[in-house]
Specification:
heterodimer; A: alpha/beta; Udp-n-acetylmuramoylalanyl-d-glutamate--2,6- Diaminopimelate Ligase, Chain: A, domain 1; globular; B: 143 residues; five-stranded antiparallel sheet; binds adenosine-5'-triphosphate; binds magnesium ion; HATPase_C_sf (chain B); kinase activity (chain B); transferase (chain B); kinase (chain B); Anti-sigma regulatory factor (Ser/Thr protein kinase) (chain B)
């Protein structure tokens, strides 16, 4: 599924790197614990989280995660957004909760990152 | 086969610096990509390095990350000047953590870092002396 479709499904706002919306993704991982995210060995995934600090971006950078979806109206500071922009990570923000965000994406065919 | 050291880099890691924490691993990632190392191997190296770097930021008074790149492998030393780890066996257990509230707010403190470093590396050595230092040695082969 293209990120643009995810954006539409979640009524999400694009915080940076809008030009990446044509990127395809098949799996996602949801967590507020970077410890858990770092233990992932999945090839290609996107991250759903409520954690908006700079280390979320760092974690994504290390794991080659190209898109982060912030849930429940949480938005990072401008300097964090700028940092993600430089790192080539697309940031989306939705008002849905983490559970609902996951449910919508799962119903539309996105698999859990543990299954890829 | 040549086993010479091709390249060596060293980065200081500052205690409690959550803004710059991760920069050493990020720089290393850039370097490895430039050298054309396979991306899945780069990811393994960077996850191990980042976990080690953040442990220095979170748990220590500060230290450094040194990476030596050879033809066939990378050797990473993560060294800090204390406070050391009293019980390494306990620290290696998944879920064990003494991370501060600030570190937890940043998404750390799951007690997964050291086991993850071990899993990500081909060879892993940890030594520590209370009041003095903690030293990790991580070796990862390029194929
Ligand atoms: N460099 C270090 N200096 C002192 N103590 C350390 C160091 N690294 C790890 N420890 C101790 O070992 C424990 C386990 O470390 P580990 O990296 O596995 O988990 P964590 O850092 O607490 O959480 P996570 O890595 O999941 O964010 C730490 O909570 C800390 O008590
Ligand atoms: Mg850790």
């Amino acid at each position: 599924m293209q990120l643009s479709m995810i954006k539409d499904l979640l009524n999400a706002e694009v915080l940076c790197n809008e030009d990446m919306l044509c990127m395809e993704t098949f799996s996602a991982f949801a967590s507020d614990l970077m410890s858990d995210v770092l233990a992932l060995s999945c090839k290609e995934t996107i991250l759903i989280t409520g954690l908006t600090n700079i280390q979320t971006i760092r974690t994504a950078e290390m794991l080659d995660i190209k898109c982060i979806i912030f849930v429940r109206n949480k938005k990072p500071d401008n300097n964090v957004i700028q940092f993600a922009k430089e790192k080539g990570i697309c940031l989306l923000a939705t008002s849905y909760t983490m559970f609902t965000t996951c449910g919508i994406l799962y119903c539309n065919g996105i698999k859990g990152a543990d299954m890829c | 086969m040549l086993m010479e050291e091709l390249l060596s880099v060293k980065y200081d890691v500052i205690s409690g610096d959550f803004i710059r924490g991760g920069e050493a691993s990020s720089n290393l990632k850039k370097l490895l990509n430039q050298l054309g190392i396979r991306s899945d191997v780069v990811k393994r190296i960077c996850v191990a390095c980042y976990e080690a770097e953040m442990n220095i930021v979170i748990h220590s008074v500060g230290g450094y990350i040194q990476a030596k790149i050879y033809n066939d492998r990378i050797e990473i030393i993560a060294y800090d000047n204390g406070p050391g780890i009293p019980d390494i066996e306990l620290a290696m257990q998944e879920g064990y953590s003494t991370a501060s509230e600030i570190a937890r707010e940043m998404g750390f403190g799951g007690g997964m870092g050291l086991p993850n470093i071990k899993r990500s590396s081909d060879e892993f050595y940890i030594t520590s002396e209370v009041g003095k230092y903690t030293k990790l040695k991580i070796i990862i082969y390029f194929d």
